[in-house]
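Entry 12.
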Amino acid sequence: MPQYVGAIDQGTTSTRFVVLDGQGRLVAMDQQEHRQIYPKPGWVEHDASEIWERTGAVVEGALAAAGITAADLAAVGITNQRETTVLWDRETGAPAANAIVWQDTRTDALCRRLGGDEGPDRFRPVTGLPLATYFAGPKARWMLDHDDGLRRRAEAGEVAFGTIDSWLLWNLTGRHLTDVTNASRTLLMDLETLDWAPEIVDEIGLPASMLPEIAPSVAVYGEGRGVLAGVPIAGDLGDQQASVFGQACHAPGDAKNTYGTGCFMLLNTGERPVPSTHGLLTTVAYQIEGRPAVYALEGSVAIAGAGVQWLRDNLGLIADAAEVEALAASVDDNGGVYFVPAFSGLFAPYWRSDARGVVAGLTRYATAGHLARATLEATAYQTRDVLEAMEADAGVPLGSLKVDGGMVANRLLMQFQADLLGVPVVRPRIAETTALGAAYAAGLAVGFFDSLEQVAALWQEERRWEPAMEASERDRLLAGWAKAVERTLGWVDDTA
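Predicted 3D structure (C-alpha cells):
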C-alpha cells in the first residue's frame, strides 16, 4: 500500500513538488523557477509550456530525493497561482499564447468598459468579486479581442480556457476541469450555485464552450499520465485556499495570511458567502465532495515577496532574497522612509489600478538598509490594511494570525507584523502550507487521511511573536504609511 502523498505547487515564480508521509511530515521537495516575461509596463506573462516542463522535472527530482517511485504515491494534489490565464488548442494541447499572469494590468480599460454605469461592482452580487485586472475572465476576453483567429477558433469550440490548475489537469489526466476555488477567481462563477453564471460569461464575452467543468476541491479527477502514470490526481485548490486547508482553518473565524510573491489573508466564514463592504473579496475556501462549500473573505496584496525580488533583480541591493533581513536589520528603524510597492496598482482594500509604486520620505540620511527595511515593512502595513477591512466585514476582532509562505522565515518582518496588528503571529512547524493543503486534500479524497480532524491534528505551532510596540509608536508609523499610500493614487490616467 502506498505510504506517501504528493502535491504539485505551481506558484508565480516557481514550481515545486512535495512528498509527505502519513504523519504530515515533509519527506522530500524539489523546486525550479520559471521565467517572468514583461513585454510592456504593467504586463506580466508566463510560458505555460515551460511551466508544464518544469512540473515534470520537479516531480522527478522530488521522487528521486525521497528514493521512491510514482507507484509509492497514494495520490497527488494540485495547488496553483490562481488567476493566471491560459488558452490552449484542444487538439494539439499547445498554448495559444503566453499565459497572462494575475499581476498583469492590461485589462484595466476593458474592466472599466464592462463595468459601465454600474461600475466595478457590477458582478459582485453574483461572483463576490469586483471588476478588476486581477481576475481571469477579462484576461481571456482580452486574448480573444487581440487575435481574430483565436476568437474564431474559440467560437468553433477548438480553444480551451483555464487557470493554471486546469492546464496541469489537462496535461496530467486529459480532462478539462477546474475546482470551485479556482473557478471563484474568474469573475464567471455564481457563488451560490457553484456553476458558471451564463449571463456573466456572455457579458464578459467568452464562448461557453471554452470553460472547464467545475468540480469539488477534494475529489478524484483522474489517473495521472507521464511522470505520474497510474497515480490518482485528487485534490485541487488555488494556492491561498490550499493554505487555508494546510493551516487547518476549518472553522468559521479561523484566519491565515500567506507571505509569498503577493500577500493573502483569508478568514473562514463557514457555509455561506459573506458580502464585503470594505474592499475584500468573497471567495470559496474549499469544498469536499458530497458536502456544502466553505466560504471565506479574502484580502489580496499584489506585492510582498516580489518587492524583495525587485531589490535583488532590479536594484542589485542584495544578491539573494535571504539577505534582505540582515540588510534591513543594519538600521534601527525605517529612517522615515516608506515604500508602497504599487507596481501593478493597489489591491485590497483600495482596488486602485491607477496607483503606481512610490518611495516617500527620502533624505540624505537614507541608506540601502532603510530601503530594505521599508520594503519588508510595506508587507506588514498592507496586511494591517486588510485586517482592518476584514474585522469590519466580519464583525469579529482577530485573536491571532496564522502565517505561512516563504517570507515567514524573516524574523524581523514577523515581529514588526505582530507589533502593527497588536495580536500574536503564529508560524507552523512546516511553513509551506500551500503544498501541504493540496497534499492533504489529495489524501482525503482517496482515504489516505480519514477525516478533517485527522488532518487538523497534524498542524503544529513552531514559533509565536507577541506584539511589543507602544500604541503611540504604532499610530505614528501607520499615519506615515497612510500618507505614502495617498501619494501613489492617480498616477496612471488611463490604461489601454
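Annotation: Residues 420 and 474 are 6 Å apart (CA to CA). The chain has 16 helices and 23 strands.
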